[in-house]
Design goal:
The structure is a homodimer. The first copy, chain A, is an alpha+beta fold and about 200 residues long. Chain A has helices at about 25-40, 110-120, 140-150, 180-190, and strands at about 45, 50-60, 65-70, 80-85, 85-95, 100, 125-130, 135-140, 160, 170.
């Protein structure tokens, strides 16, 4: 997904009270949801900082190092992790302009990372925002991995939004605050609680 | 702790087969330990990227964005987190040149973060390397928090290495590979298993 706020700057609430025709800023919405969950002691989930390779630093003032040459790096893992209902939770967030999600938009090593989290007993999924449909879904890594593997064996190269619930995914029903109240879908998928 | 490898570069093993008189590179040793744990499917724990505020990016080539002005930011949380024995694990790593650890070397918001992780049912601790003694200890956040709170009420301003086991901490006995095999101390502290 596009990195809209590499400095982690918080978006003021009035900017996002409704979803306009250009779609919401998905990453910002996830950050707002996480902040809401933390404030209410529901979960402690953070976006990891964007990994940056620092090449050159100058010291114009003694107190503050200024980075003058650096590059964005490929993340080793996923965007988000933390703790929810005593469980380790880890997910990758993606958005697409289409009504289907192409597997070329996710790194193989991120899928493997999520698979390993699942094997260790953690909650691991991919959350996808389909901008054109204004729909968000979460797909458990086991389901996602099965589809991904099919794709490597000449199966479909993407996951269609309209097919996600058939392959085991759950829709994140958009709420008021937070808009992307994804823990409700997590409850439904991992804690056998109805998503309302 | 000092950021010796902001680019996350791996240190080759032959550099660290023994701890020389200048002490080990603690962060590198923790990264090596985590890599060992991941390779052996014992735990999935990563160091989070150093948070950097990007101010200016230039595009000398179409393919690669070059960051030309950026600054190190204060981390929101801690250095390391992940999953171990199905549990969420989160810790802050510190090193000191003295035989005691001064509370001024840890941010209050990091202590609060670890306290919240503990309240959510996760494993949360501080790991400290006392360079001069060549000793490493882990202190559960509950014990650390108690000492920290005493310090705010005119108690001792630091934790002495020689006193850590008395306040509930556990020594990480230095091993061959990985040298800082801290999960043994975690077993002893959180899973009632003898540290050997």
């Amino acid at each position: 997904m596009n990195i809209k706020y590499p400095n982690g700057k918080k978006v003021s609430n009035n900017k996002i009270t409704h979803i306009n025709s250009r779609g919401m800023l998905f990453e910002s919405e996830l950050n707002i949801a996480n902040e809401y969950y933390r404030t209410n002691n529901l979960a402690i989930i953070y976006k990891k900082p964007t990994p940056i390779q620092v090449v050159k630093v100058s010291y114009p003032e003694r107190s503050k190092a200024k980075i003058v040459e650096a590059y964005y790096k490929t993340p080793s893992t996923t965007d988000y992790n933390g703790i929810y209902k005593t469980k380790y939770i880890d997910f990758e967030a993606k958005q697409t302009d289409n009504a289907s999600f192409s597997f070329k938009h996710i790194f193989a090593h991120q899928i493997i990372h999520l698979k390993k989290i699942d094997e260790q007993g953690g909650i691991a999924f991919v959350i996808i925002y389909f901008k054109i449909l204004n729909q968000v879904f979460i797909i458990d890594i086991k389901d996602f991995y099965r589809e991904y593997t099919n794709n490597l064996h000449d199966g479909p190269k993407s996951i269609k939004a309209c097919n996600i619930t058939n392959i085991g995914g759950v829709e994140v029903l958009l709420n008021k605050l937070p808009i992307v109240d994804y823990l409700k879908a997590v409850d439904s998928l991992y804690f056998n609680q109805k998503s309302k």
